[in-house]
Amino acid sequence: MTTTAPGAGGQEAPAPAPAPAPGGAPAPDAVKDGPAAATGSSPWQLARRELRRRPAVRVSLGVVLLFVLMAATAPWLGALGGWSPEEFDKSAIDPYLGGQPLGSFGGISPEHWLGVEPVTGRDLFARVVHGAQVSLLIAFAATAIVVGAGTAAGIAAGYFGGRTDAVLSRLMDLTMSFPSLIFMIAMLSVAKDVNRIVLMTSVIGVFGWPGVARVVRGQTLSLKHREYVDAARVGGAGPWRILTRDILPGVSGPVIAYTTLLIPGMISTEAALSYLGVGVRPPTPSWGQMIAESVAYYETDPMYFVIPSVFLFLAVLAFTLLGDALRDILDPRGGRT
Fold it and tell me: DSSP secondary-structure letter at 244?
């Protein structure tokens, strides 16, 4: 039987509209295709969507891509400038002024786009782009070692627990408490006839993995008892399948964010070791090595100090801003703790 409102002429009364939520927010039934639609997005899709909304981050991403492209094409860029990083140009310096560059701003000219080194006359543009190749190669390779080892150790410790967790956690504590910088300096000082790039990459990577491992361990502990993981376990899936199909995708967001934040630290570490004289050796160019050599000329030729310092500053700043944005997007809780 239909209930009619009094005096409505037998017509059915209209249903009342849903009341708005407190604070003027739309009613729950009205929000169906909003931010919740993004919950099924992968970390890369979520990052791309959010990065498009941040102009400063887009600029940082452009600077990062520019440095990566510069490092990848360093031999061709050096050839485009017309000089190799080890080639001397005695005509660009004044032998009567202690080898100071001829011209203004450190010898900047159509032949030498960023000027030349004092005394030697080597082209700074060629050395800077080749230095970017060395610095970024060490930073990326060391970051790959750190992220790979840290992710594997963190997932194993968090998923298996028990004795495995105890052993790996104590190893993390031991590695983090070790004076890594002193050991790096000592190790690189005594190693003479070895590939310095390979040695620096290995030494930096050995001491960097516990930070990633701790982050991944915490994420794994929160994921291993989720319903879909229990369902996979009940369905007969082995540990390897669960770790690679269920746990690893769940920790990929924080790992991506942490990876981007690691790279500027690796660049700074390589520059610091080269500055202290235990990193890349001449004539192989490196930003840290160039800054160390330019200290003796900062009063007479300040551009020799400014140019590699600016490149180092921009690379670290761009990677840091990009990493901060990715951390806020992919691991917002980790950014607050």
Answer: I
Q: Cβ(93)–Cβ(102) under 8 Å?
A: yes
Of 38, 8, 27, 279, the closest CA to residue 137 belongs to 279
Pairwise CA distance, residues 259 & 323, whole Å: 8
- pLDDT of res. 2: 45
Indicate the DSSP class of residue 91: G
The model's pLDDT over 123-162, given as tens digits with 9 standing for 90+, comes to: 999 999 999 999 999 999 999 999 999 999 999 999 998 8
In whole angstroms, what separates CA 115 from the centre of its chain? 30
> Cis omega before residue 249 (within 30°)?
no
Rounded to the nearest 10 degrees, the angle between the axes of helix 287-294 and helix 302-330 is 140
What CA–CA distance (Å, rounded) separates 218 from 155? Answer: 9
| Packing angle of the helix pair 248-275, 124-160 (nearest 10 deg) | 140
Length of the chain: 337
Phi then psi for residue 148, to 5 deg, are: -65, -50
Sign of the CA dihedral running 113, 118, 123, 128? negative
Can you give the pTM of this predicted structure? 0.78
Nearest by Cα to 106 from 317, 290, 288: 290
| Rounded distance between C-alpha atoms, residue 2 and residue 272, angstroms | 83
**Distance (Å, rounded) from C-alpha 30 to C-alpha 18?**
9
Report the run of H or E that residue 258 belongs to, with start and end.
Answer: helix 248-275
Q: Tell me if residue 219 falls in helix, strand or coil.
A: helix
Q: Which two tokens stand for residue 154?
A: 């963190």
Helix (H) or strand (E) holding 100: strand 100-101
DSSP for residue 96: G
Q: Cis peptide before 283, with omega less than 30 degrees from 0?
A: yes
pLDDT at 42: 62
Looking at residue 237, the DSSP 8-state letter turns out to be -
Element (H, E) at 199: helix 196-223
